[in-house]
Amino acid sequence: CFFYIKIVKLLYIFFFILDKNNKLLDVGNLVGRIENRMLTVVTGPDMVNIQYLNFMAFQEDVAKEWAHELFSLASNLLAQNMGRESCLEKAFTRLKLQTNQEGRIPVKNIFRLFSTDRKRVETALESCNLPAGRNDSIPLEDLTPDVYKSFINNLCPRSEINQIFADLRNYLTVDQMTEFINNKQRDPRLNEILYPPLKPEQTQLLMEKYEPNPAMIQKGQISVEGFARYLISEENSVIPPEKLDLSEDMTFPLSQYFINSSHNTYLTAGQLAGSSSVEMYRQTLLSGCRCVELDCWKGRTAEEEPVITHGFTMTSEISFKEVIEAIAECAFKTSPFPIILSFENHVDSPKQQAKMAEYCRSIFGDALLTETLEKYPLESGVPLPSPQELIGKILIKNKKSHPKPSDAPAEVEAEDDEDEEDDDDDCKKSMDEDTAGCEAFATEEMSTLVNYIQPTKFHSFEISKKSKRSYQMSSFVETKALEHLTKTPVEFVEHPLKQPTFLMANQDNCCFSLISLSDLSMQLNLGMYEYNGKSGYRLKPEFMRRPDKHFDPFTESTVDGIVANTLSIISGQFLTDKKVGVYVEIDMFGLPVDTRRKAFKTKTSQSNAINPVWDEEPIVFKKVVLPTLASLRIAVYEEGGKFIGHRIIPVSAIRPGEIQPEPRHLKTRFSLTMMSSQYLHTETRLVSSFVHSCSIYTAERLISTD
């Protein structure tokens, strides 16, 4: 979890303030154990390259209060998806706080914050009658909110919005604005009784909120500037706020969800010689991940403490116990829904396996699920419990030694016996060859921790279907998964709906419950799990969950809810602080028939990243077969191809709007500055029944802190 580093200054003032007489506070009045009064602020551009800032409060309750409030600020989903206006307000606050010794705002801070196009910034400052020299400074009282907004309007004029008013007067009336909102912005799918159209008096309230000129408000009019403020507000974000919140039904069996998962969680770099870190478990869980991997090996020190590392490589080792403590600390801070600990257990020492089991029991306490729920015994035909029923619980995935269920078909029991024999042979062969391919046999202590997630060797879809053991889990490497997907696509998709299935892959998934990803696929994964309250769980599409349906992922025929999309790139604002040309690329990801890599690319702007206007011809996605699994990726690059930022937008979550270029704003990710946005237009059409459309105004990026 990352915090604006600016908050460090506030923390310093709070914890080290001097009394009125400039006397140091009496350290003898400290209350409580020192470890309970410590507060660590973790900052950095990503979860690997991080820094720690430690503070000590004078009382335990003070440290707890600060930790709680800071975490709430850092994990606020609405704040992470704030509109352009809010980002500009944050930039304004930052400028007001970064004063020099005379209490004035250095002009060089404005240059640094907004653009390296110095001439353009100077012109905007001069137009507001403000000092514009690099060594100049601005009196604090001179940079009022109104002056600041005027500066922004001069720095980044909105010619594309002015064009909307070209054939009109310089304002809209209440009636025109009401018609615009109801006919252009309103979702036509909404029931008019439950969600009635906007009334003129409600429109008047909106105009009062966004129109800066009181005289126009009195006349019932909204100016170009007021209209622009309305368009870029949170009320016109491309993703409805309710999609960011927990919005999906969490009462289906666990296997009917995609689960945010991590592979080789402990690594901070390559798996051959990279460093391992306990902190990775904290950061991964704080990001919303609900399944982490623990590669457990026998410790060879005198203390015989089990360790976590990547076996038979040069990666460093970390303490198993410290990892369990880190997981317990951060398990449910971001999401209350269950966590799966995927043990790859190579510990061939019964004594150390007993230690592992004891650490899990003692550190996790009641959060560790050691007994099955009464409604969900480990019996054939019984589904898995739901995420809702497992709130606050930690599940262990590890090999389990247990007797065969008496109700299993004879061929299944025979297959289980063969499975164990295969495992024996594989283990002996692996140990003889000194490879890391074998897991150790589970001792009784570890077996008792395993219930709903029991790994088993996959033999065939037919055998898995006959056994009806929802608590058994199969794992696939990508090559094997692609083989099954090609030969038996329908069975391949249906298999994870009955029992959890894990896939290690380099590309997006079509059906798996848990999947570990990297690179572009990692970006898609992060985008997918950004929604539904960042719970780490996404309900699989209804069409895939219905027992009366058989879904072929390679289908090109109609699926429930098939839609068409039209997208136009119009303009951008504050895309980078460099004086370079920029361009935008569009990708669509989903089913094979829906996926279109580099479907569209704009021309490159001419050394203008502050307010480039493209107004390109639209790109048409004639049909999206399964929109609930489809995502748009909108990415921005410098003219040389350097990546600036992107955003993943679920097609099914896009808020409808109008065909004309009214903007909807959309944050970009992995970017360097704060106020960047793009102005684009999409039209979405449901082929079978109704037409709706939306316009997207992408997207504010977070500013790098210093």
UniProtKB/TrEMBL annotation:
Keywords: Hydrolase, Lipid degradation, Lipid metabolism, Transducer. Signal peptide: none annotated. It is an enzyme of class 3 (hydrolase). Residues 545-669 form the C2 domain. GO terms for cellular component: cytoplasm; nuclear speck. Pfam families: C2, PH_14, PI-PLC-X, PLCB1-4-like_EFh. One of its GO terms (molecular function) is phosphatidylinositol-4,5-bisphosphate phospholipase C activity. GO terms for biological process: G protein-coupled receptor signaling pathway; lipid catabolic process; memory; phosphatidylinositol metabolic process; phosphatidylinositol-mediated signaling; release of sequestered calcium ion into cytosol. SMART domains: C2, PLCXc, PLCYc. Residues 446-545 form the PI-PLC Y-box domain. Residues 397-432 are annotated as: Disordered. Its EC number is 3.1.4.11. Residues 410-425 have a biased composition (Acidic residues). It catalyses: a 1,2-diacyl-sn-glycero-3-phospho-(1D-myo-inositol-4,5-bisphosphate) + H2O = 1D-myo-inositol 1,4,5-trisphosphate + a 1,2-diacyl-sn-glycerol + H(+). This is Phosphoinositide phospholipase C.
